[in-house]
GTP-binding protein (Dioszegia hungarica), 385 residues
Amino acid sequence: MSAAARRSKLLLMGKSGSGKTSMRSVIFSNYSAKDTRRLGATIDVDQSTVRFLGSLVLNLWDCGGQNAFVDNYLTAQQSTIFANVAVLIYVFDITSTEWEADLKYFDEILTALRENSGDAGVWVLINKMDLADKEDPARKKYEERKADVIAVEERIRRERKEKAEKSGKKIPEGEEGGSIRCFATSIWDESLYKAWSSIVHTLIPNIGLITSHLTFLRDLCLAAEVVVFETETFLVIAKSGTPLDTDPSELDVAETESGIGKLDRQRFEKISEIVKGFRKTCQRTGEQWLGFESTFDQCSVIVEPMTRNSFVLVVSNDSRIETAMLQYNLNMARNHFSEFSQKPSLDRKCGLCRGSKELKYEAEGDDDPSVMAWDDCGRGLQLLG
C-alpha cells in the first residue's frame, strides 16, 4: 500500500440480537465468545475505524437492528448509510422464529444497497449455528435459509435489469450485482474466522501478487505450504499455491504432491482461533507471544512475524530441511515483503521477481533492464543445504 491509507466502508447489518456486535468484538477487539455476553444492543450506528495490514483502513458501520433503526436507514438515512459501500455483511439468526420478516428486511436493504452502491460485495452470515446444530446436524435448515437468501438476490438483480432495459438505460459494468457469498457461522468456533477472512481477502490490493510471492517462497524453501496472517486479528490473508477457497480437486501439482488436499479444510481458521486464545493467556500472565517453532516426526512448523503487520506460517514435510534454513529464507524475504505490501502498483519489478519467470505481472517503467530494481533481495534469498 502507498503512504496514503486506502479506506473501505463495511456495513454490518442484521436484525437485533443476530450477533453482529459480538462477532465484530471477537474479530477486532480480541473478545472471547464468553466475553460477548456483557455486550448490549447497538444504538443506531456505531462507527469504528480498524487499521488492517497497516495501511488498509476498514470503516466499519455496525448498524443497530431494531425495527425503528432499520426503517430509518431505508428512508431518511438511505443516501448516507448505503453510499460508497465496499462490502455489506448481513447477519441472520438461524434460531429466529420470524424468518419471513427477517427476509423482508434483507430484501429492502439489498435493494437500497444496489441503488446506491451497485458494485458492493455482499456476504451473508447465518449465525448461531452452534444452537441449530444440536437439533439439525445435517444443516437442512441452513441450506433452506441460504436458498431463500440467494433467491432474493437473483430476483433483485433480474428486476433491476428489466427496469433498466425498459427505460433504455444500461447498468454500469461491475454494478449488476454479483453472487452472494453465504457462510454458516458461530462465535464459538473457527467458522467465524473463515467468513471474515473471506471478506477481508477481497479488499486487499495486489492479492494475486502476494499469492505468487508466497508460492515462490514455498518452492524455494521446499516447503509444503506458506500462509500469511494479519497480526492483530490473525485472519488468514493469503496462502501459497491455489487460492484460499479452491476445491481440493483443483490444487496445483506441488500442493497435491505435498498432501495438502488431505488436510483439514478449516486448518487456517483453527490456527487463528488457537493463536488468539493463546495470546490472551499470555497477556493475562504478562508474557509476550513472539511466534512458534516445532519439529514433528513428519513435518516442521514455523510461525513468526513476516512484516510489521503480518505473521507467516511455513510448513515443511521434508525431513532434510532444518528449521534454521527456513528461518534464514524468511529473514532474507522479510524486507522484500515489507516493501511489496506497501505498494498498490510497482514502478519496476523487484530483484526477486526479475529473476523468476513464474512471477509475471506488468510494471510500468520496467522495460529497461539497466534500471536497478527497487530492492535487492533477489540476491539474498536462497536455500541453504
